[in-house]
Amino acid sequence: MNGHPDAERSRAGWTDDRGDIDGIPNVCVEIKDEKKINLAGYMKELEVEIKNRKSKYGVCIVKKRGTQDPGEWYAVLPAKAWLALLADALEEKKNPDTPHKDAV
User: Fold this and answer.
1) Could you report the per-residue pLDDT of 59-75, keeping only the tens digit for each?
2) Burial code of 68-97, b = ≥16 C-beta within 10 A, e = fewer?
3) Is the pLDDT of residue 48 over 60?
4) Going by C-beta distance under 8 Å and a sequence separation of 6 or more, which residues neighbour residue 96?
5) N or C terminus: fewer CB in 10 A for the chain?
């Protein structure tokens, strides 16, 4: 994944799909590169993968037509996941010395 030093492709063949990218603590990442975008289907798949991985957060990265740069692709997540990220970010801002509690 673009920009995260520990991110790497997940191994293929999981009996319980856990997403496409490993190495980001407490985050499930699904990558999609399809002509026809199916957000509802992607979110349904992501919810299952978040549970399989036991992650707090999940995101689906959808390839943008016409670019190979993952930094230009779309990051899609359910509103409840965005709200959880926002709440955690605001809490972090209020208490910057609090250690992160990410599951490894």
Assistant:
1) 999 999 999 999 999 99
2) eeeeebeebbeeebeeeeeeeeeeeeeeee
3) yes
4) none
5) C
Q: Return the SS3 of 22.
A: strand
What is the model's pTM? 0.76
Distance, in Å, from the CA atom of 19 to the CA atom of 84, rounded to the nearest integer, reads 20
DSSP 54-82: T-SEEEEEEPPTT---GGGSEEE--HHHH
Residue 5 in this model has a pLDDT that exceeds 70: no
| Exposure of 56 in the CB half-sphere (CA atoms within 13 A) | 15
73-86 pLDDT, tens per residue? 999 999 988 998 89
Sheet holding 21-22, edge to edge: 8-9, 21-22, 27-32, 57-62, 74-76
d(CA 94, CA 30): 31
Find all residues with CB under 8 Å of 14, minimum gap 6, and list them.
Answer: 52
For 103, phi then psi, to 5°, come to -75, 140
